[in-house]
Amino acid sequence: MLPRAVFFDMDDTLLNTSGGVDASWGAVCEEFSAALGCDPVTLRATIKAEMQRFWSDEASVEREWRTRLEEARTHVIGLALTREGLDVDRAPNLSRRYWEENSSRMRLFDDAIETLTSLRSSGFQVGLITNGPASMQRWKIGQFALESYFDVLVIEGEFGHGKPSPKVFQHALAAVGVDPHQAWHVGDNLYADIAGAQSVGIHAAWIHRDRLEMGESPKAIPDRVIAHLDELRTALEV
Predict the structure, then answer these.
(1) CA distance 98 to 114
(2) Model pLDDT for residues 157-216, shown as the tens digit of each residue
(3) Burial status of residue 21 (CB atoms within 10 A of its CB: 0-12, 13-18, 19 or more)
(4) Taking the domains of the chain in order of start, what are their residue ranges?
(5) Are 162 and 169 a contacting pair, CB within 8 Å?
(6) CA gap 238, 231 in Å, rounded
(7) Which end of the chain has the lower number of beta carbons within 10 A, N or C?
(8) 9 — alpha (psi -120 to 50), left (phi > 0) or beta?
């Protein structure tokens, strides 16, 4: 049975926020390496290792840092600088430059607007459910003129709860007036998007964008797996 409402994650589902990460870190490490007295490649590798370690415990990050992403980034850069014996006071400057670099590289996926437009014109209720700080997520929504495509927007930093909390999905359902079995949710994060949606009975579609692998012990098993949004449109007959 087709749903009446479709909810979307934003980062790396509709908006390509990870595609410029490596280039952004490369540019920032190159820019600061002379002043820090280090090899930029080594600095990049250390920052990457610290980032992976920090973000691996999603539950802990959810409790402490997810609405403080800029602080989290600065904290992790500080850990990397400390590990390399470099000036930790430079961490805030590196963090700011990284945001400038990466935000300038963010782009909507080619299929995002076509999909949202098709769903709206076909009579579906459409929602955006995104984790993160209010100011950062509102900047992205405004920068890419996304607000008008949605009947409801749930932003963690504004709502007070984030995915995978059932409260987030229940709020979105109530806002568009549908029951859980009448909704689908599309996202790239198995823990936040898939497990969260399934916890309230929403059909959960995992989008991997040809860059993610589920692994041997996934945090959730999606109801549907898609690489790109054209597969979603096909499934929804739009």
Answers:
(1) 30
(2) 999 999 999 999 999 999 999 999 999 999 999 999 999 999 999 999 999 999 999 988
(3) middle
(4) 5-17+107-236, 21-105
(5) no
(6) 10
(7) N
(8) beta
What is the residue-wise DSSP string for 86-112?
A: --GGGHHHHHHHHHHHHHHH-EE-TTH
Reading the block at residue 139, the tokens are 């900047």
- Mean pLDDT, residues 6-10: 98
Element (H, E) at 48: helix 40-55
Give the largest CA-CA distance in the chain: 61
Collapsed DSSP state (helix, strand, coil) of residue 15: strand
CB atoms within 10 A of CB 83: 12
Residues 6+ apart with CB under 8 A from 174: none
Residue 183 phi/psi, 5-degree rounding, is -130, 150
Pair of tokens at residue 159: 């709502």
* Per-residue tokens: 55: 């973000």
Q: Are 223 and 204 in contact (CB under 8 A)?
A: yes
DSSP letter for each residue of 155-177: EHHHHS--TT-HHHHHHHHHHHT
Residue type at 146 in one-letter notation: L
- CATH class given for the domain over 5-17+107-236: alpha beta
